[in-house]
Amino acid sequence: MMFPKPQRRKKVRQRVRASMPESALQKTCEAYLDVLDLPYIRIPDTMNSIVFGSSYIPVHVKRMISAFTKGVPDLTILHPEGMFLCVELKTESGKQSQAQKAWSKRVAAHYHIIRSFEDFKTLVNTWLTEMR
Ligand SMILES: [Mg+2]
Fold first, then answer.
1. Residue 113 Cα, ligand 1 centroid: separation in angstroms?
2. Residue 6 CA to ligand 1 centre (angstroms)
3. CB under 8 Å to 29, separation ≥6 — which residues?
4. CA spacing 20 to 30 A to 62: which of 8, 28, 52, 122?
5. Ligand 1 centroid to 85 CA: how many Å?
6. CB distance 71 to 102 below 8 Å
7. Quick one: CA torsion of 132, 27, 93, 118, rounded to 10 degrees?
């Protein structure tokens, strides 16, 4: 007599909504700023290239730099009128570090947490409109 093979229970895995990795979001946002011809500062990278002028940085030096730039927003967008906009990019579930929270208090109303390119576009365009 043949017994039916017990059905293996399919694992129900909670699907985490795939959001854009932060690095990809940053690249997209920067490309958009380039199109708008808006200058921006990306502090950690800028610091590295100013100090060393190359992509190779010893680990202990990287740590030293990050001590200075801890919490600095991912993008600081500059306006010809002298205004600025700080943008901290996060994935959908990303959380602010303590250092980032401290920074957001320093720059108060100029600081925004952005989790998608759509939100970034809206933020920048609203900001530019208010500036006119
Ligand atoms: Mg970030």
1. 8
2. 48
3. 75, 87, 89, 114, 117, 120
4. 28
5. 15
6. yes
7. 40
pLDDT tens, the chain, 132 aa long: 667 777 776 655 544 555 788 989 999 999 999 999 999 998 655 555 555 566 677 778 778 877 788 889 999 999 988 899 999 999 999 999 999 999 999 988 899 999 999 999 999 999 999 887
Could you give the residue ranges of the DSSP H alpha helices within 37-90? 43-52, 59-69
Ligand 1 center from residue 12 Cα (angstroms): 31
Give the C-alpha separation, 58 to 131, whole Å: 42
- List, in order of start, the domains of the chain with CATH numbers: 22-40+72-131 (3.40.1350.10)
CA of 89 to the centre of ligand 1 (A): 4
Crossing angle of the two packed helices 22-36 and 117-131, in degrees rounded to 10: 30
